[in-house]
Amino acid sequence: MSKGKDSKPHIGIFGRRNNGKSSFINALANQDIAIVSDIPGTTTDPVKKSMEISGIGPVILIDTAGIDDVGELGKKRVDKTLEVLKTVDLAILIIAGNDFNDTEKSMIDAFNDYNVPFFIIHNKSDLEKLKTDLSENITKVFKTDVLDFSTTEKNQIGRVITLINKYMPETAYSSKPMIGDLLSYGDVVLLITPIDIEAPQGRLILPQVQTIRDVLDNDCICVVLKEKEVDAYFQKMNPKPRLVVCDSQVFLKADAVIPKDIMLTSFSIVLARQRGDFENYLKGTPHISKLKNGDKVLILESCTHHVTCDDIGRMKIPRWISNYTGKKLTFEVVSGLAAIPGKINDYAMVIQCGGCVLTRKQVVGRLKAAVDAGVPVSNYGMTIAYVHGIYERAVAPFMKIDKNTLDYL
User: Fold this and answer.
1) What is the pTM of this model?
2) Which domain holds residue 186?
C-alpha cells in the first residue's frame, strides 16, 4: 500500500473475513462521505479511499484484509493489516453475528498497543440483532461504543459519523502550531532557505511553505532569504527577528552570523516537534557520541525522490556522522514507509527525516519498534545540529532550562 503521501487523518476498518468491511465503507461512501479517489492495492494490500467527513474534513479510509485469514498468503494479508496500525488515527472494528472472541480481543490489544482509539460496529443487524449482554460486556470491559448496524438501513450512517467525530483525536486533523506558540503579534520571523540542487524547480520545499503559512496564520511578519543575504539583512533591517529558522544544511553558518540573543532552529526540528517523536529524539540524539566501529545506523526517509550526489539523508548525514564520530559505520536507508530490513535490534540508532508528508501518528508508529526495543532515535535536523556542535541552541526555542536540565516545553 502506498502510504506517506497523505497527511489527512487515517481511519482503519478491521474485522474478520465476510463481516462486511467493504460494504460498510460503501455504505458510508453513499451518504455523508464523498469519495474523492480510489487507490487500489494488491491482493495482499489494504485499500485506501480518500473521503470527506462532516466535522473533520478529508480523511483516508483503509479497508483491510480479514484478521482471521489463514494459510501462507493469509498470514501475509494479516501482517499487512497489522502494519496499518502504525498509520491510523482511529480504528473501527467490524463484528457480525454476535461473534466476539479471542480474535477480536487480540485486535483490541493491538489497538491499545499502538494507542489507537476505536469503536465497534456490529454489522448485518438485519440478519441478527446485537445481543444486549454482549453490548453491555464490551462497553464495560473495553470502554468503547458498540453500534448495531445494517447497510440496508441508510438512516444509521449519521450515528456512525457521530462516533467517528467522538473518537477521532483532535490532533489528527487540528495540529498544534509549528512555531506560532513562540511568537507574539507582529513578530518578525526570518527564514533562511538555500536554493540548491535538491530544491524543486520554481518552488520551495514543503517544510518551508508550511512554516511560512504558520507565521502568517499567527499574524507575524515573515522574511524569506537565501543564506548569502543574511549579513545584508542584519546590516539594513530593523527590528531584529524574534526567531530564525534555517535549512539544516546551513546550520553552521547561521549559528555564526545570527546574534546569540535571537532564537535559532531548523525546519526539520520544527517538524520534529510538531509531528515527530520529539521527546524520544531528545533522549536519542546524544547517542551519536556513543556509536562504535561496526554499528549500523538506519535512516528513514518519508518520501521517495531522485537521489543526487548531495543528498541530505543518503550522503551528507552519513558523512557528517562518520566524520564526527571517527568510527567505521554502516548506513542503511529506507524510503517511504517500506518495511525495515532485518530486526530493529540490528541497528545501533535510527534517524528519521522531518516527516513533512506524514502525520504525527505515522511518524510515531514508524519509530515505535525502535523505541520499544530501546534503540535510540533522532531526526535529521537534530542530528545535523548535534554533529555540528549547535544542538542545544537549535532545540532551545522549544525547551525550558530547569536545574541545568533541558525539559521539553
Assistant:
1) 0.70
2) 180-271
